[in-house]
Design brief:
The chain has helices spanning about 10-20, 55-60, 85-110, 135-155, 190-195, 210-220, 225-230, and strands spanning about 1-5, 25-30, 40-45, 65-70, 110-120, 160-170, 205-210. By secondary structure, the protein is an alpha/beta fold. The chain starts with a strand and ends with a helix.
Length: about 230
């Protein structure tokens, strides 16, 4: 069985379709997926609800082959400096706290198969942050740091699981609809197909599209004042 958190839209929906071709897929999202595909099991659940017993009961005695966290939340039309506590907490919970809680709990409950892939979806905002979206960018940077620590921890504990973190560029999803981006938005179907094809060997950090590797290198070499001028226009 494969578990996809945030499987009702965007990249999560594309991943659900891809992996349902070969195996059962349990999708967790805020709305049900209507599908005639018997391999797709959809549960309506807010992962920020601290009672996640429905999720763990749905897995039952199953062991997971792959876990994908494609969930994300940004409030593009609001300057994060002015967000109230509730909105800031919702962004941090959705993009970081709930993800780490579910990951830790599944490992603790021994629900993962040998060589299981745990895959996080981070953001190119860890390379070029948006100055009006500091809470969102902070949550994605925290997720990137968690990935690194988790990967090391699993290795030192001799737990045979793979961990991947996708540094994704601007994607053409409902969350980014109407948002101007400095680079062309990418189709989530293409990213999902790439993940599906490489699912047995993913382990590490992946920049998608790959030109973000080059952007990361350029940014690391530029003085801060130049980088800040670039970010000002994002």
């Amino acid at each position: 069985m494969n578990l996809i958190i945030g499987g009702s839209s965007g990249l999560g929906k594309s991943l659900t379709i891809c992996f349902s071709e070969i195996d059962k897929v349990l999708t967790i999202s805020r709305k049900l997926i209507k599908s005639k595909n018997k391999n797709i099991i959809s549960i309506k659940l807010d992962i920020n609800n601290h009672n996640l017993s429905r999720l763990y009961k749905s897995i039952k005695k199953e062991e997971l082959s792959n876990i994908f966290f494609s969930v994300g939340l940004a409030m593009w039309n609001e300057d994060n400096l002015n967000l109230n506590y509730e909105k800031s907490k919702k962004i941090l919970d959705t993009n970081f706290h709930s993800i780490t809680k579910i990951t830790n709990e599944l490992i603790k409950r021994k629900k993962l198969k040998k060589n299981c892939l745990i895959c996080f979806c981070s953001s190119a905002s860890t390379i070029l942050p948006r100055h009006r979206q500091i809470i969102y960018c902070a949550s994605k940077s925290a997720l990137n740091s968690y990935y690194k620590s988790l990967k090391t921890s699993l290795y030192l504990r001799n737990l045979n699981y793979r961990v991947a973190n996708l540094i994704l560029g601007y994607m053409d999803t409902k969350m980014s609809k109407g948002v101007a981006t400095p680079f062309k938005k990418i189709n989530p179907d293409k990213i999902a197909r790439y993940i599906f094809i490489n699912r047995k060997k993913l382990h590490g950090i992946y920049h998608l599209p790959k030109y973000w590797y080059l952007i990361r290198l350029i940014v690391s070499l530029l003085p801060d004042n130049i980088v800040q001028k670039i970010i000002k226009n994002l």
